[in-house]
Each structure stands twice: as structure tokens, then as C-alpha cells.
Amino acid sequence: VEGREEGSGVPAFEKDPLELTVEDVYDISYVIGKDLLKVSRVGAEVSDLQFKIVRVLEMFEIMVNRYNLSLEELRMERDNWKEELGRVVAEGSNGNIIGPDKLVIDLKDPNRPRFTMQELKEVLQERNQLKAQLLLAQEELQLYKSGVMPQPQQNMENPPSDPPLTTEESIEHKDEKTTIQKL
Amino acid sequence: MHFIPPVSKNRIISKFPKCYNPQACLQMKEDWNEKAKSACLDRAARQHGMDRLKMSKAVVVGDLNVGKTCLINRFCKDAFDRDYKATIGVDFEIERFELSGLPYSLQIWDTAGQEKFKCIASAYYRGAQVIITVFDMADIKTLEHTRQWLVEALRENEPNACFIFLVGTKRDLLSAEECQRTERDAVKIASEMNAEFWSVSSKTGQNVQEFFFRVAALSFEDAILQEIELSSSSAVRIGDGEILKVDAGDQQDRAARKPSCC
Ligand SMILES: Nc1nc2c(ncn2[C@@H]2O[C@H](COP(=O)(O)OP(=O)(O)OP(=O)(O)O)[C@@H](O)[C@H]2O)c(=O)[nH]1
Ligand SMILES: [Mg+2]
Question: Is B69 in the pocket of ligand 1 (CB under 6 A)?
């Protein structure tokens, strides 16, 4: 390359060795090759030295090339890990798994899980009892309306219990107030 | 004497309901069992038993989204909702019938199909006289899963103590040929499960009332027959003087309900 400066004026010589590219190696080889030509007339020792220098430059080329490839691989690997980490963190903040059988809960999320299974069970039981009472009350109301029953009367039916009693069990208990009150 | 509110007219079952498909049917007979029939007549005439309202328990199980809640709502409320709202844990309805002149109630327990509620729902399987396993006729893998649902429901109950039904829902979504093909598969599985097969649509209401009438009739008749059996075996024991002397009819009935084995 004609425009290049000679000697240590070549930028490749000034670079951080870890940042060298194969092109830099070619520049260095070009400059050294030109210098070698100037002394080539001197003798057999010089041509032997020339040969060795060319060989070292080839080795240099291979090493820089290899180094850059591994660097590229490492960068790609690092980027993959970054992505993976981001994904896991995002999942974690949604309340998903971050380890075997573990959960991360975002306390700012209004839809975060708040109740335990046990609490849900209890709420359901209470709901079922209230529903059974409502059904009973509706039937009694129906009776007053139809005039079949002159006075308030309890226990038309055994309401479902939680978990419900079998027919036999509920009949056994018919003298008690209601299954609900009993519970 | 207790009073019982009148049963609504469309819950009076006077004729013995037929099965849907004779190939997967729990009982082929055309009419009530003779013994049960005369027991009912007798009871109705004496107004006896009116103070003891019979109640059976049915549990409805199956995959999520197969249409369990819709099936129950169609029958109990004559309503249908196109939007899916998952059942949380468990819910129930009580339907009152009049069969052979006697009042009868069915507790229908609607369980959640979602895996996360299984531990809650399964606590309600116990003490069922009827197990209704439901699948979506338009989603064939839900039919396969009914076996597992049945195993889990049976685990909580006495063997051979339950009537088992296999119900295919959403038949309105299938063409006639598809429907036939799915029913053929279902009948096969039903006979393996010892279940009676029904094919229904909660959307149109097709076969829904027929199905529940059949459930009510079979479980009612079974309850009556069991009671006859128990009271006859305890009558012998009363004769043997093995149990306390009883005078009130109510107490007698209660004694009669004690298992005859002990
Ligand atoms: N076309 C049609 N759709 C139906 C029928 N039955 C239910 N569906 C629809 O199926 C969906 C699920 O119905 P559900 O009854 O809520 O299902 P489920 O089995 O109770 O579900 P879980 O409570 O989660 O176990 C709803 O969107 C219904 O509208 C039917 O007969 N025909
Ligand atoms: Mg449901």
C-alpha cells in the first residue's frame, strides 16, 4: 500500500496487542517484508532469517485470527446468558418459578396470590353453608306464601355440610338444629 | 309432622325415565322396581316418610372447560353462559323432585376441573351415591381422562355403592357423523367404567332434563330399596330381642338405618 508511512509510523505497531486484527498483521508483514528486501542482497544468513521471519508472521496471523474467533464466541455466549437472565428475572417478578418449588411474589402486583389453600377451603366452606341456609330460607318463605305452614318451622331439609354428610348421617342428625349450626 | 314445600311441577317424575343408549345403560327395566313401587305407595298413603326427606348426593367431575357447570346450570336454572368462568374449588345445587308421590332431593356437587383446585374438590367426593364423569364431545382427549377422574372419585367411596354416569357435552358442536363416532367411542369406555352414557348439549338443552331425571330416578329407587332391605333385616333382630325396645316410629327408622352387619 503506497500511502503508508514507514517504520514505527505504521499504526498497527502502536496498537494494543489484544486489539490486533488479521489486517493489522498483514500491514506489519508488508512493512517487515519491504525492510527485508532492502537487506536481501547480503547473504545466505539473511535469507534464512527472512524465511524465519515470514514463518513467525504466519504464526502471528493464525494466533490473532484464533484469538478473535474465540473472543467472538465468548461475546455470543455472554449475550445469550444476559438474555436468559433477563427472562428468568421477568418470570420471577410475575410470581413464577425461580427455583424448584419456589415462588417470587411481586408485592406491588394487585393480582398477586394472597390466600393459602387452607384459607380458600375455609372461605368455600363458609360460602356453602350460607348458600344452604339461603336455600332453606327460600323454601320456608315459599311455605308461608303458599299458606301451608302456619308458623315458622325449622329444618325442612338437611342442608349440605362441608364436606357433606351422607344421607344416613344427615338423617341421624335431624333432631339437631341444622347441620350448619352444628358445625 | 313436618311440612315440605311443594315441588315445582316440572320436577315431578311419574314415569320411570329411560336410558339414552341401551348399549351403555345401568338398568334396562321399563318401570320402577316392584318392591320399591309398593313401598312408595304404602309410604305415600300413610304420609310416612314425609318427615324424612330423602336426599342423595351426586358429584360431577371431569377436565376443566368440558361444561360441568353449564350442564348443572341448564338443568337447575335453565340458563346457559357462553363465557367460560372456571369453578373455584367446588359449588353445589339442590334440586327437589317428587318421585312416585314421594319427595326427593338431589345434592349436585359441581367440582373444579383445574388441577390447582383438585385437593379442595376431592374432599367433596366422599359419600356420593352418584358419580357423573363429564367430557367434551368436541375434545376427544377429555374422554380419555374420564377414567382417571372416576378412579379418583371412587377412591373416596365404597366400591359398588355408586351409580356412575358418563356424560358427553357440547353435542351441538358436532356434525351428525362426528357425533355418532364420538358416541361409539364413549359407549365403549362407559361399559368399561360400568357407567351409563348420555350425550347432551347444555347450549340447546338437548337431553339435559332427561339425563337428570334418570339420575334422580335411579338413585331414588336405590335409596328406597336399601331402606327396605335394612328395615327387613333389623325387623328380624327386633324379633330376636337383640336391640333396645323402640316405640316411636322415628326412632325405629333410625335403628333400621344402622348397618345390619354389626
Ligand atoms: N357449544 C357449547 N358450549 C358449551 C356447552 N357446555 C359448555 N359450553 C362452553 O364450554 C365452556 C366451559 O363450560 P363450563 O361449564 O364453565 O366448564 P367446567 O367444566 O365447569 O369448567 P371448570 O369449572 O373449570 O372445571 C364455556 O365457555 C361454555 O359456554 C355446550 O353444550 N355447547
Ligand atoms: Mg365449572
Answer: yes
* Centroid of chain to Cα A128: 40
For the Cβ of B82 lying below 6 angstroms from any atom of ligand 1, the answer is yes
| Residue B142 buriedness (CB in 10 A; 0-12 / 13-18 / 19+) | buried
Q: In what order do the strands lie in the sheet with B163-169?
A: B12-13, B90-99, B102-111, B54-61, B130-136, B163-169, B196-199
Best CA proximity match to A64, nearest among A11, A20, A16, A10: A20
Q: Which ligand is nearest to the CA of B63?
A: 1
Domains contained in chain B, CATH given: 9-255 (3.40.50.300)
Whole-number Å distance, alpha carbon B219 to ligand 1 midpoint, is: 26
Does any CB of chain B come closer than 8 Å to the CB of residue A103? no
Q: Say if the ipTM goes beyond 0.90.
A: no
E-assigned strands of A43-167?
A: 97-99, 102-103
- Is B169 a pocket residue for ligand 1 (Cβ < 6 Å)? yes
Secondary structure letter of residue B5 according to DSSP: P
Q: How far apart are CA A93 and CA A105, in angstroms?
A: 6
Q: Which residues surround the ion ligand 2 when the cut-off is CB under 5 Å?
A: B 68-69, 87
Nearest CA to ligand 1 atom 7: B67
List the pLDDT tens digit at each of the 262 positions of chain B. 455 667 888 899 988 999 999 999 998 888 888 888 888 877 776 665 544 568 999 999 999 999 999 999 999 999 999 999 999 999 999 999 998 888 899 999 999 999 989 999 999 999 999 999 999 999 999 999 999 999 999 999 988 899 999 999 999 999 999 999 999 999 999 999 999 999 999 999 999 999 999 999 999 999 988 888 887 766 554 444 433 333 334 443 433 333 333 3
- CA dist., res. A31 & res. A26, Å (int): 9
Cβ-Cβ contacts under 8 Å, B88 against chain A: 120, 124
Which residue matches cell numbers 363429564?
Answer: B134
- Centre of ligand 2 from the C-alpha of residue A146, in Å: 34
